[in-house]
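Re: the 358-residue chain
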Amino acid sequence: MRAAVLHEIGQDKLEVLDDVEAVGFGPGKVKLRIRATGLCHSDVSAMSGVLPQPAPFIPGHEGAGEVLDVGDGVTGLSQGDRVLVCWLPACGACPSCRRGQTQLCLAGFMNAGTPNFKRPGGDVFGFAGTGTFTEEVVVGAGCAVPIPDDVPYEIAALIGCGVTTGLGAAINTARVEAGSSVAVIGCGGVGISTIQGARVQGAAQIVAVDPVASRREAALNFGATEAVSPDELADAKQRITGGEGFDYVFEVVGKSATARTAYETTRRGGTLCVVGAGAMDDNFQVNMFELFFDEKRILPSMYGGGDVLRSYERAIALWRAGRIDLASMITHRVRLEGINDALDQMRTGESLRTCVEL
């Protein structure tokens, strides 16, 4: 079967091979035929080593497809079912799950250390225990979430990560209030989803901040009331908030420098929501006086900060109602052979989301 493989961490190109086999099928597992997968910046971060991931590995975690086979003990799934891939399934039994914080369950991360592919030369891992840049994959049953028949595979794929993460940051984590002012720093697929979440919540001003002109233009079509380059953010803060700062600022880049800018752009008593996934050695700093004196809430948001199954349902409901636009987020479509061009387009900011059709 065909798959796109990264041989060593630090390489920027994937090799599309046809000698890969999905392995590990058995009790509690399902085999999926991937039909569509999105490119998320986390895939690039894993390739570069910013996010920890053993190699060689197959990137991709934002996918959708159909069930090919069901292992013993699996209930609620049947051959032929349409599903999206959940890269962070909840076990339902750990302390985080029992507290209702299923997005913090670590069971899914444990799968990342077990190879679920092989080639003649040895084992191959799947990113985050999945690996969707491939025709077939074996995952735990909890990673396969049934979707209604009216949801296209490419829309379901986006809901599997970027849309859920961005919408959830605004709705679950920050709980944006109607009439408030919002700034979103970083307007790729997750940032655009955050903008849409803020719009759904009724924010009065939503300022999109991105260095790429095409992304700023796109943000205006998804609900931003204004779009500025990073150099123009200070002026926007002054004009819109009288210099006080925004009620909510979302950092969707994953860098300490932009997190610091976001902190300084948040009003006293406001909320900084950190959505971007960054490196373990990139430290965000605040001094103890400002932390106390400004009383700004610093809220990280992991995978949308809420129960992902409920978040999927909500995203589908909002999409059906026309409250969020997911189809227009897909700016490029490629076959697997075009994966490296698609990665370059994401790195330069040319694309919001690319759909890889398999």
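The longest strand covers residues 29-38.
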